[in-house]
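Its record is set out here:
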Amino acid sequence: MDIDLVLEGRTFINGELSYAEIGIKDGKIVTLGKMVRGGEERIDIGTSKIILPGFMDPHVHFRDPGMTQKEDFGTGTMAAVHGGVTCVLDMPNTKPPAVNVQSVLDKKSIIKKKAYTDYGLFAAVTPGCHVGLLAPMVAGFKLFMGSTTGQILLNDDDEIASVMKDINITGKRLSVHAEDDNMISGESESCCRDHLRNRPVEAEYSAIRRLAHYKGMKINICHNTNPESIRMASELGFTTEVTLHHMFFDVDRNTTAEYKVNPPIRDKATKDKLFQTFLDNKITMFGTDHAPHTLSEKSQDFDSAPGGIPGVETSMPIVMNMVRTNIIPMEQAVRMGAEAPASAFNVKKGKIAVGYDADLALFDMRSVSTIDVKKLHSKAGYSPYAGWEAVFPDTVIIRGQIQVQDGEFCGERIGEDICG
């Protein structure tokens, strides 16, 4: 067999690091072992680096089309690849929203050839939507039970029930923004505690309880903010997703519009319990909910400022620093950041195994840096993680093609739609 590229070095395979050689052909891993023969090009990564599967972010808002002053598919995926993320799943609340065959096709046409990483799209669930026609075109479906950016709310139980059967038949996963909109208040806000008052944790519980009719379906509960939601969702057989901002920030310490997000950051006790649930390995996957707005928008008075926090470039490097400092094991970082999201959304990525895409992220765990907003690639131009320690990838490879080397971008717009 002719092999395009062989990588040699300490590699994360089957839950542990050991020496391996990875043979890559036509963007796929075709052979794996202690000694792989041939290879037009061979790269020995040395003893200081490790080879991990590229990470997958199952929850980003790249604002393309319609809000590209905040982000577009080029800047969003450029940010992603510098964070070791090789595939993203983009949410449907753009302008216009991705809700039917034509709007999804139009979005695909607009973003095609912009991406530096691979990507998939979500379609929003709306009353009477043609799920069967949409399914081959999208990575999954998205249900907004609570109001947030965009007007794609679907919070009526009968209307939800009318599309659930069709979604189940497709085999696609449904990601849910689980906040019961009936329990969300529109009172004036001046800080994050006011935002929390308006979007109480009971709204999250109520939304998940209402989904109990669909126990065992392929449902993913997005951006869980508390351990009780994790418990309820897990008992229903749903996958669960967590952001760093819900595990690290609290309403009394992080008060400004920079931290305004839906669902809201909560009090310190809830945040600490969520973090312990994470340490106990009870959460399925990370999802950044990367939701950039312009700095001028975020600098408005709190009530007027939009909700959303950028994180696609910084989250996994922060997680890798947690590995470096022995807060979590490497296995958990890889499972939650690569294996679990790829498995949940049925993508042949997230593992270093024969037959999988050759998406790889190389890290030197001794190479610690401080997050510098000026060096980030999102249009947002700000980050609540400025000054935090992180381990960014040294090299990032997507389908066998090097996109980042020695921490610097060297690739092209090679991103492909995982659903064609």
Observations:
- Residues 93 and 149 are 7 Å apart (CA to CA).
